[in-house]
Amino acid sequence: MSEPDAQLWTRVRAGEEAALGALFDLHEARLFRHTRRLLSSREDAKDAVAIAFFELWRKRETVRLVDGSPLPWLLNTAAHCARNLERSGRRYRALLAQAPAQPAAPPPTAADESGILSALRRLPAHEQSVIVLAVLEGYPERVVAETLGIPVGTVKSRLARGKARLRGEMTALEASWA
């Protein structure tokens, strides 16, 4: 075990949380690679690493070091956590498969008296998604761009075109009321 690793372990054993964070920074990448090989889900691999470090903290008084390092213990614990996560995931999927299928909820039957929703539905799908996220949900253009995987400039142009089309449809609708 390297000298910084030995000092960190001594501080972890003494209950110093910052030392656990430093130990995490030191070994997290290796544990993640190990658990990623064992699990199909990236998120489950991250969870297995986090659980292993929680267990290291919880059991710090009884952890057996190998060649003076907690890394082998962490690798072994992360592997156990990965197997547990995989097993619980299989059980959950099996339970879902056995559950009776719920009938889909019927679409809302209330009439759109304003015509705005029907005008929105007539927009092309790419403009519709930008309008919904930016205008109705209130997300900034940058977030909309990241969510849809398109440049911010494309979001701006689709937003402008969509608003213009909606404005035209609403003007026509208002004219029909008179």
UniProtKB/TrEMBL annotation:
Domain RNA polymerase sigma factor 70 region 4 type: start-end pairs: 116-166
Superkingdom of this protein's organism: Bacteria
Pfam families reported for this sequence: Sigma70_r2 (PF04542), Sigma70_r4_2 (PF08281)
Keywords per UniProt: DNA-binding, Sigma factor, Transcription, Transcription regulation
SUPFAM superfamilies to which the protein is assigned, alphabetical: Sigma2 domain of RNA polymerase sigma factors (SSF88946), Sigma3 and sigma4 domains of RNA polymerase sigma factors (SSF88659)
Magnesium is among the record's keywords: no
InterPro entries linked: RNA_pol_sigma-70-like, RNA_pol_sigma-70_dom, RNA_pol_sigma70_r2, RNA_pol_sigma70_r4_t2, RNA_pol_sigma_r2, RNA_pol_sigma_r3/r4-like, WH-like_DNA-bd_sf
Domain called RNA polymerase sigma-70 region: residue spans: 23-91
PANTHER family xref list: ECF RNA POLYMERASE SIGMA FACTOR SIGM (PTHR43133:SF50), RNA POLYMERASE ECF-TYPE SIGMA FACTO (PTHR43133)
Family indicated by similarity: Belongs to the sigma-70 factor family. ECF subfamily.
Name listed for the protein in its UniProt record: Siderophore-interacting protein
Organism from which the protein derives: Microbacterium terricola
